[in-house]
Amino acid sequence: MRAAQVTRLDGPSAIEVRDVPEPEPGPYDVLVDVHRVGVSFPDLLLSRGEYQLKPDLPFTLGVDLAGTVVADAHGFTAGQRVAGVLAHGAAAERVAVPAAFTFPLPDDLSYDEGAALPMNYLTAQFALVERGGLRDGETVLVHGAAGGVGTATLQVARGLGARTIGVVSTEEKAAFARQAGADDVVLLDGFKDAVGGLTGGRGVDVVVDVVGGDAFTDSLRCLAGGGRLLVVGFAGGQGIPEVKVNRLLLNNIDVRGVGWGAWAMTRPTYMREQWKALGPLFASGAIRPPIGATYDLAGIGQALADMDARRTLGKTVLRVR
């Protein structure tokens, strides 16, 4: 079978689609024929050896997938449509996925949308509910609001009853974020004052930051009393910001880390519980992943290069079959 593999740590241009043996499922796995694979920021870091996980070479990329079950296993039936998530290894024609990381795909969601769901939407749910303690009627500010995690966070927050404000870098991204679920959108340049205007000077209850960098201090200044800044990642490439803790004391605000993978991968039932919690948002239509671009499997290098250049909107998807 074909798989997109990293054979040397030279970035997207060095990824190869190679023939590899089909997987043998373990006793706790579900064997899945892959239809779609979601392209994720960890794939980019893995291709360069810059991720915290460092698999031995060669290894297969791919975190999110959607496809069909090959044989009955662990409550799943042959032919059933599913989504799944792996630390890596999904970008192949067939994969063995732990049953705990395999989820039934709702009938009204496509394979493209299914491949956009697991990592981004489970991260958003973990950030907002588990780490952020989001309450109905609160206001959530989302950085990188036109990206995969950003659009997922907008939709989950709105589905949970929050007002959403997206922060983006261009007018094109602003339009995309509005379509994805932002009640309001502001441009990154001058966002603090714009947010003050939208909230009557009060500020927001939660900031979800997937970008990091220079905007961090102004994000803290956007928080209302009792507000929470959720650190999800540093996709902006501007380095890791620092915080002066007196700001937290004076305004009764928090900075909280959001490490979904480290949390969920060590709690065997947690992802399935999250998927169940998202069920009402699937049913209501609050969750509808926006697909920005699609490539075939051999196009994974270009897809990651486009992500690295910040040319992508929403979720990028590879069409395997």
Automatic annotation (TrEMBL):
Superkingdom of the organism of origin: Bacteria
CDD domains (UniProt xref): QOR1
Domain Enoyl reductase (ER), residue spans: 7-318
Matches recorded under InterPro entries: ADH-like_C, ADH-like_N, ER, GroES-like_sf, NAD(P)-bd_dom_sf, Quin_OxRdtase/zeta-crystal_CS, Zn-ADH-like_protein
A GO term for molecular function: oxidoreductase activity
Protein name from the UniProt record: NADPH:quinone oxidoreductase family protein
